[in-house]
Amino acid sequence: MATKKSNTIKLKFDSARELAPAPESKSAATIKPQYELFINGKFEKPASKKYYHTINPATEERISSIAESNQADVDRAVKAARQAYEKTWKKMPGKERAKYIFRIARMVQERAREFSIVETLNGGKPIRESRDFDVPTAANHFFYYAGWADKLEYAFPNRQASPLGVAGQIIPWNFPLLMAAWKIAPALATGNTVVLKPAETTPLTALKLAEIIQEADLPPGVVNIITGAGATGAAIVNHPDVNKIAFTGSTDVGKIIQRAIAGTSKKATLELGGKAANIIFDDAPLDQAVEGVINGIFFNQGHVCCAGSRLYVQESVFDQVLRKLKDRMETLIVGDPMDKNTDIGAINSKAQLDTINKYLKIGLQEGADMYQSSCKLPGKGFFCRPTLFTNVAQSNRITQEEIFGPVLTIQTFRTDDEVIAKANNTPYGLSSGVWTDKGSKIFNLTTKLRSGVVWANTFNKFDPVSPFGGYKESGYGREGGLHGLYAYVNVK
Fold it and tell me: 267 with 305, same domain?
């Protein structure tokens, strides 16, 4: 359904495709043919005696067999975490806990190339993103919270902070290693122990992290990593000896967790879906803004909860921005995630690709105009062309519902009040972006946009010192920064 391209665009695209292949070697990574559960400092076979296969979404080839936990396995992991908490971890001085967390950070750095390769093979994201963002940022979170472990009296002045106990943590498939770091690091720094479940489709970097935790001589049971699907996550959420639930994932599952822990003493942080507004004013640096939009929606194939999936462009520059966007989309290389030239890798799973394709059909049925780049997709694997929709309405499903793929909807606006109303007209409230040359306009919007994070003249910028989280159906609580400590302590 792509519109006709100009000769200029075609030349640009052909030039991009003529880049010589630059594949990253797989030889730097060691992946076992089978992985067990990491409980009480050891890799143990599942009580269920069941395994499932994890695949490479770019090739559909099997990578490894993964243990599938049942209720008995969850019980073992929680029991190990409780014993480690009561006997060792909560009693350990903060400066000693810091040494372990710092050691983990350094070991992640030392094995950064291996982690980036495994993350790309298992998740489908381009190797450049794994190498330059996921792995370094994960290491930085461990470094950052290692620094807080012996300084909690400064984090909570004139108050006494004590750990909660056992934290049950469930992470998604879009940033497996980074989400593990986001969850584990602050929990350990504040004296809690952990039972973590990675996503069913992307467990490998969490299991590689378990190897590092074992090598770092972390006391047995302080961190337990168990694998499985939704039933395993539900068993963690419902376990009576878990004190805290930290979940990143879909809004629907977040609501189920809320209902499950209602009436209990369990604390929770939920980082859920999003439908972020990216707003371009007519006084913005347009070339910079277009790059920000491209990064905002096509980074990690759009598998980002804070992706800038709704673009609002001031009417007077709409035609110019649209032309620049289409030109830039034509230069994006979609293909082998292990190739360093690749901009957009594989969709994480067939199920997610089916969901994205469903929304593409919905968009056309709703009367929107669809534009896709003219790139040729690989013959095998799960791939989707970068896509944008124009002529969309606020009420369209592709505007209101999270697609979680490389799909952008574009609308126009005339005034500040109009775009604020449109941007806030969503059940989500995770992030947004503003592009303008005027600081006063930025401050006006940041006070009125109902989202937990607002980026100004940039997008998708993350730092361990900066808190992240949302409002409304995007969840509650914050991860990162000083705020990330609050979620794991009782304060008196």
Answer: no
